[in-house]
Structures are given as C-alpha cells and as structure tokens.
Design a protein that fits this description.
eight-stranded mixed β-sheet; alpha/beta; 41% helix; two-stranded antiparallel sheet
Length: 278
C-alpha cells in the first residue's frame, strides 16, 4: 500500500544534473560561497529537492536548517542504493544498530515478546531480521518503493507500506502496536514533535518505542535541539529527545551511547533509546 500526499513535479533532469554536479564540485573544492549559489540554482530547477540541496546548504552553514530531509531526496537516495543497501550499510559502514537494539531489549526483559511490531523506515528489513523471534506480527513502512520490494522478497513482514513515516502514523487505521522501532530514521528528520505525537497515538499503553539517533557534543549543538552534520544527516541533542518523550508520556528505560556507523573511516556517535508508554 502507498500513502503519498504529493504529486511529483516535472523538472529538466539534464539541467538539474548539470547544476547539481557543478554545485557538488564547488563544495568539494571548499568554495562554499559559490557552492551555495549553485545549490540555490538547483532548488530553482527542482523545488522538490531530489538531490538534497537544502540539507547540503545547512551542512555548509549556508542555509537554514530544514525541518526534515526532503521526501523526494530520501526516496531517491534509498531507491538508488536499495540493491546494495545491506552490503553498503552493514559491511562497508559497520552498521549494526538492529543487533544492538536486540541486546538492549533482552537486557530489559530476557523473555521479551511483542504481539505487534511496527518498523518505521524499515528499509530492506534489518530490524525485522534482528528481532524476528520477538514479535508475532510485523509491519514495515518505508518511503522507498525499492526498499519495500526487497523487504517483501525477504518475507519477514506480515504487512508493508510505502509511506513517509509521520504521514503513516497520522493516517493509518490499523490497530495500535506494542513495539514501534525506528532505527536510522531520525538522521533524516529534524523537528520531531509530529513524530513523537504519532508514536504516542499509535502505541498501546505499556508498549515500547525504540529508536536510534546521531548526536554531537553540547559544544557543537550550541543550545540547538537538532542540526545537520558534516555528512548531511541530522543530529539530535539528548535533552531534546528526553523532553519529547516526557511531553508525550514515555518513560525512558534505556539510553545508550553507541557508534551508529563509520563514515570515511571515522565512528559516528549516536544513541539508542528504548522507552515505555505510560
């Protein structure tokens, strides 16, 4: 099933490719002023922002931090990498957050089992693989159709939906869940108020939410709740996440500092959080 409230706008793909390549060359050369102008031209050609110009501008400090990564950008990014996603993320980037989540959940309850699990931003199904024996029924949601196709072929989910995750939480008419997982989702979202409100609305009382985030030191955040980091992904302050959990009636059960992945040989710091709906 597909949930989508946007109709893709037509644009000149050749002009977009030329403009984007020029902007990227300027950025890599360190000419951020010229790159900023070039990315603004990219956005004029493609307002839907399939190339993620807005987050690149924010990463360079040349534009306002957007409330989220553009849907067109996220869908394009993951559609392009779907076939090699597991190899790139796990083997090349050292990503093992779903397995780390499994250990955290077992540490909280060695017999933990959930009737209904919702996997937001499910991708190819790495969390479903890691938590396979912990949930009787699993629903997966992802913005990338290609990712959903691969997850379907694996057969780990009982239901799959193509949708932006907040839209899904707002629109679904399914029964609520007692475990909602969102691993490697927050790095593509900035403001999280609507996301946590959606979690609150769709979790059963006593159910658990589990999510990972990327983070920075307080000196880097400089009082901000979130920011776009050097690799065009969002980082969130722990204080912001704790505030949203409290406001939405979640008790934090675990908050572990982890390495989310490795980027260009460097560990990317993050957090893995599990909370219970009161």
């Amino acid at each position: 099933m597909t949930m989508n409230n946007e109709t893709p706008a037509a644009f000149d793909e050749e002009a977009l490719e030329e403009a984007y390549d020029r902007a990227l060359r300027l950025e890599k050369a360190g000419d951020f002023e010229a790159a900023s102008l070039a990315y603004q031209e990219v956005l004029k050609i493609d307002p839907s922002d399939h190339g993620g110009a807005a987050v690149r501008l924010a990463s360079m400090g040349k534009g306002e931090v957007p409330p989220k990564a553009p849907d067109a950008y996220v869908a394009t990014l993951f559609d392009q990498h779907a076939d090699m996603f597991d190899t790139i993320l796990v083997d090349q980037l050292g990503y093992d957050v779903p397995l780390q989540l499994r250990e955290v959940l077992l540490g909280l309850d060695e017999d933990c089992n959930f009737t209904r699990m919702l996997d937001l931003g499910c991708g190819t199904g790495l969390s479903a693989d890691a938590l396979d024996d912990m949930a009787d029924h699993k629903t997966g949601v992802d913005l990338s159709e290609n990712m959903i196709e691969i997850a379907y072929e694996k057969g780990d989910y009982d239901e799959l939906f193509v949708s932006e995750v907040v839209l899904f939480l707002q629109k679904t008419t399914a029964d609520n869940w007692d475990l909602i997982v969102a691993t490697d989702v927050l790095p593509y979202m900035g403001a999280l108020e609507a996301f946590f409100a959606g979690l609150k609305a769709r979790i059963n009382k006593g159910g658990m939410i589990a999510f990972s985030s990327e983070t920075q030191s307080q000196d880097v955040f400089q009082g901000r709740d979130f920011m776009v980091g050097a690799y065009q992904r969002f980082a969130h302050a722990e204080s912001y996440l704790r505030k949203l959990m409290e406001v939405n009636g979640f008790e934090c059960l675990a908050c572990e500092n982890i390495t989310v992945r490795h980027e260009q040989g460097h560990p990317v710091p993050g957090q893995l959080i599990v909370a219970r709906a009161l």
